[in-house]
Amino acid sequence: MIKNEVKTTCSYCGVGCGIIVKKDANNKVFVEGDKDHPVNKGMLCSKGMNLHYVANDVSDRILYPEMRWSRSHPRERVSWDDALDRAASVFKSIIKKHGPDSVGFYVSGQSLTEEYYIANKLTKGFIGTNNIDTNSRLCMSSAVVGYKKTFGEDSVPISYADIELADTFLITGANPAWCHPILFRRLEKHKEENPNVKIIVVDPRKTDTANFADIHLQLLPGTDVVLYNAIARCLYKRGLIDEDFIKNHTDGFQEYKDLIFKTSLKQASKICGVSEKDIQKAADTIGVSKGFISMWAMGLNQSVVGTDKNVSLLNLSLITGQVGKPGCGPFSLTGQPNAMGGREVGGMANLLAVHKDLMNEEHRREVAQFWGVDKINPKPGLTATEMFDALESGKLKAVWIACTNPLVSLPNLNRIEKAMENAKFVVVQDISHKSDTVAFADLVLPAAGWLEKEGTMTNSERRISYLPKEIDAPGEARPDVEIFCDFAKRMGFRGFNFNSSSEIYDEYAAMTKGTNIDVSYLNYDRLKNEGTFQWPVPEHRHEGTPRLFQNKKFYTASGNAKFNLPSSIENNSVLPNEDFPLILTTGRVRDQWHTMTKTGKVSRLKTHYPTPVLEIHPVDAYLYKIKNGDITEITSENGVVRVRASVTENIKKGVVFLPMHWGKQLQSNLNRANNLTNTHVDPVSKEPDFKFTRVSVSKH
Ligand code: SF4
């Protein structure tokens, strides 16, 4: 018998589907899609529809704070007072001795906006360091830089509703059929109902998304910039550009035009491994489109040239004038449910809250004034990979890791393990003992999970939703905001006396007043009573903003959008050689999510892709004497993985693929794709090069 029913949002990907949660008399929860929700209209993917198993099964949950007094002692249960007093005392003593830059926080795109805001206020405002970064660095930071360079601010211009208004889609470096399934379902339905809709997919793999495409450009990894420039060249030559938009609303076109004509179509075809005919066909399709949307995810972002790939793709929206109108525009697909919310509150080492710029003295002064502190440290903080480099070198002494599992998700895991062993003090704040990172913790803090706390999140289309607390957290687990505020008070900081998440949200919302992400007229009452809103919501009774830049005024100094040139058209990844002749690319599978601490608990989600396998092309398999199903050893300069081979033409020759979800806890050390991946990062976005590591393979 159902006792209670509430509306909330899925805690997995950035699509942000609405869920109705029902609770019975025994406090067991059940989920179903919310038919009234504008995003999913009642649909849920396999992950979302099984979320109740995750919420009901607390067998893996961390129930009490645990602490060890030294590395030679086991961790033991302690009270919250003992745990947070120790954390404050260790942090104070390290900061006193080595300065505020000797500590850091590593948080998550799964954190709620209020949690993200408080962690940033604590670190940047009160501890006095910008050493707070997030796992969104591994996912969205190249897109953030691309948007800032092109539009003047990190602003996704469009909505899912634009999908049904568009006729041409360029999906590049993304597999939404598996990783953003409900968004993809909308796209499928739109094409089924409108056969004139054209889908172009750019991917070295024949994914389910590529199988649905009218044109699949199976490019060589790392050559995206050359491909987009070649498409632009074809558009220009055919006269399929929007001269009026370029002249009146953009800067930098002449330099861009010079660049795209430096490489011939023939040269581009050779570099990318895609036929001239197919590049031309893609350009012609885009050029005659009345509504052109580009969609992308990790294939672009996770690269040493991630920024270059992003600006080059965004240039295609500018050259065709396909932005600021219904049914068109660039649309980055966020992997995590609240990566966007984290960016709003400045959740990265180089950002400040409400889209203020850390490098801008006036912005630092405004933020400091708002928080009532003397100043914000002007020195950019350590980014995700830099933080672990600094733990390894000893520059960073203490790290506080919340709601993320870097011991599976970061590149070059053997090095990350060494870094963690070298840390003087590690705090892990999480929900699950299944996180590999917990093994390295001196202090473990049990956090409340989905449905066990309230707060807000923002999905890929700038849509803010309210998530209610529906069930009690098990054991002594507490909401992350409570933990951070309690710690801050023990550090002696004022400004953390909040009585509820609502008060934290209100403080953040007040801070947005007058900015481009103004939500000062949006509060918990409106979110609870009226549903979700897309920012900005800058006036009383404002209904939110589905589409940005309709007036063709961009957030740059000139008000125009900017054509940016890539720093180089070369792929700066470390290229294959005789010893490591193949390119490894990593990615996700349909029914698993991140490091499987949640989806790994659900038996029915394990059937689709039960164990990690190496996808290898038949020609490469023949060359390296590997048969389908053989145990294969994959080696890079960083480590080794041993998994079975899947010999398939779905992968481009010269490229192999491994899924990234599996960690040590779930199976074995040798299943971790990130044993192999390299530590190179994009020089601007600092996003790692997960999609390009040179490897060798052999039969084990
Ligand atoms: Fe959840 Fe994403 Fe699936 Fe929607 S598409 S149900 S948000 S995992």
TrEMBL record:
One GO cellular component, as annotated: membrane
State the superkingdom.
Bacteria
The alphabetized UniProt keywords are: 4Fe-4S, FAD, Flavoprotein, Iron, Iron-sulfur, Metal-binding, Molybdenum, Nitrate assimilation, Oxidoreductase
Record's keyword annotation contains Iron-sulfur: yes
Q: Which GO terms describe its molecular function?
A: 4 iron, 4 sulfur cluster binding; metal ion binding; molybdopterin cofactor binding; oxidoreductase activity
Per the entry, which co-factors are needed? [4Fe-4S] cluster; FAD; Mo-bis(molybdopterin guanine dinucleotide)
- Which processes are annotated in GO (biological process)? cellular respiration; nitrate assimilation
Q: What are the transmembrane regions? A: none
- Annotated family: Belongs to the prokaryotic molybdopterin-containing oxidoreductase family. NasA/NapA/NarB subfamily.
The name of this protein is: Ferredoxin-nitrate reductase
Q: Which organism is it from?
A: Algibacter luteus
Q: What is the lineage of its organism?
A: Bacteria, Pseudomonadati, Bacteroidota, Flavobacteriia, Flavobacteriales
Q: Which residues of the full protein are shown?
A: 1 to 700 of 1173
